[in-house]
Amino acid sequence: MKFLIPGNAPTHKLNRHWTFCVGGCHAKMVLRTDYIRQLKFIHDTLGIRYLRFHGIFNDDMDTVNDLSAVMPIPGAEAFSELNFHKVGVALDNVLFIGMKPFVELGFMPKSLASGEEQCMFFYRGNITPPKDYDAWECYIGAFIRFLQHRYGEEEIRTWYFEVWNEPDLQHAFFSGTQQDYFELYAHTARAVKEADPLLRVGGPATSGSKWVASFVQYCRENNVPVDFVSTHQYAGDPLGGVEDQGGPETQDAGGMGDMADFFRGVGERLQSVENKSLLTGLRAIMPDKSELIDIPNDLFAKNAAIVKEQAQGLPVYYTEWNENAIFSAYTNDTRKVASYIVKAALDVEQSVTASSVWCFSDLFEEFHVFPQQFHGGFGLQTIDGVPKPSYYALKLLGQVGDDRLELDGDAAQGEIGLAAFCGNGGTQVLLFRQKMRNLNLPKAEAEIELEMPAAPQRVTVQKIDEEHGNPLACWQKMGEPIEMNCAEIEALKADSMVPEEKLPFTYTDGVVQIQAALGVNDVWLIRIEA
């Protein structure tokens, strides 16, 4: 495959949407030292500015309390208090390291809830609507006033407030219907604006880019405040897709019907597993569908373009995205995620306002706290802070210039994708051979020709491949130790770095020629210094 990069190619300003925000489990985790230490590393090295997490109102944050929880005696339940102190400590930690909160408003405190249904995950947040919307609005107002007093009005006006998480996934994150969510959103958004009209609030925070058109329509028709649209997208998402595309929208999209299909055959799979560890069991329950069926790698790009139109001019925030929606998938620790992140980030950069990769660390408690250093978590880092290929993907993206060259459409298609940039003292070229399956195929050859008025001073390359940026392989060579001491962790980090190396080139008649050979899901960043 041959790529020609003309010297007079037009450019546009690159939207570094992936540096806006990153996801990070649930609120109680934000109180942990190891969590904050890893988050600071992400902020300092990748420049990511905001943090989003679930469960800021979960009962383990103790925001609503009554005396019966302390003294279970008749009449004690009449004595109650609001207490946002733990939330404040968590937000203090975020601000202390130089980041800002992207506040997800949820889930429902038990004493305010209309039912007892909990989310399916480890932290068991209540996912029912409020039993009394007047009480809920008072609660939201009290929360905003707490933030205003603790941080000041001007500071929290730089934050974002998102109502709930993935309400389309009934019985997973929300017990109600679409209309129930819209009502919850309306009361919540109005309570936020009542406290301060300049605060930014939005939703619907759905999975699979769903509900955006109907959400915006609802807000417009009912004069409900909305400052931005938010939604999520995973390439390997097993549940649903964009509404109003290819058929009528269903009110229970992502509900128990989809979940039942998703878990069909689990019993047989569990019986067939010989090693009965928790990790192998979860992998049997939730197999990596991206390695079993043909999943398109352009779903994010197509859906983001649709959502941009559906948003009717509102800013579009993808507050979760990644290659795989399956926690514990072996390939989450491989460079398949790295190559997908590079491709997807570039594919959607003109369709989204900003985005948030899910998530920054395998310090993650949705299913189970696995002791294995590599257990297929979503994180950019392992439980002990070892950077994974996905981290290095964002690191390479951060090194390209501010101007993206607008090349022929064929340049970003086919077996090897290419994107070129200028700035930072030269031209940078990202090459990636992204595939949704980790296939064992021969290397693919590529030739790059770049028009330049003079020979470059230097050409270098950084690679994410089998030998570079591959801590999983290094860990396997160590014997896959469950418990690792500090020296072993630092050695693993050093052995799996992505160094800059000289790359051979030729220069003839105003053209730089570079040869490359990429394995499946390899990523190269080539720097050509003028």
List keywords for this structure.
530 residues, seven-stranded antiparallel sheet, alpha/beta, 14 helices, TIM Barrel, Immunoglobulin-like, eight-stranded parallel barrel, single chain
Which CATH class of the largest domain?
A: Alpha Beta
Shape summary: globular
Question: What's the pLDDT, averaged over the residues?
Answer: 91
Which percent range describes the beta-strand content?
Answer: 15-25%
Number of strands: 21
Q: In DSSP terms, counting alpha (H) and pi (I) runs of 4 or more, how many helices?
A: 14
The stretches of 5 or more residues where confidence is low (pLDDT under 50) are 246-257
Q: For this structure, what is the CATH homologous superfamily of the largest domain? A: Glycosidases
Instruction: State the strand order across the main sheet.
Output: 3-4-7-8-9-10-11-12
Radius of gyration: 24 Å
As a percent range, the share of helical residues equals 25-40%
**Total of domains:** 2
For the sheet with most strands, the description reads: 8 strands, parallel, barrel
Looking at the structure, the CATH topology of the largest domain is TIM Barrel
The CATH architecture of the largest domain comes to Alpha-Beta Barrel
Structural class: alpha/beta
Amino-to-carboxy terminus distance: 25 Å
Family: Belongs to the glycosyl hydrolase 39 family.
Organism: Anaeromassilibacillus senegalensis
Domain Glycosyl hydrolases family 39 N-terminal catalytic: 2-236, 304-496
Keywords: Glycosidase, Hydrolase
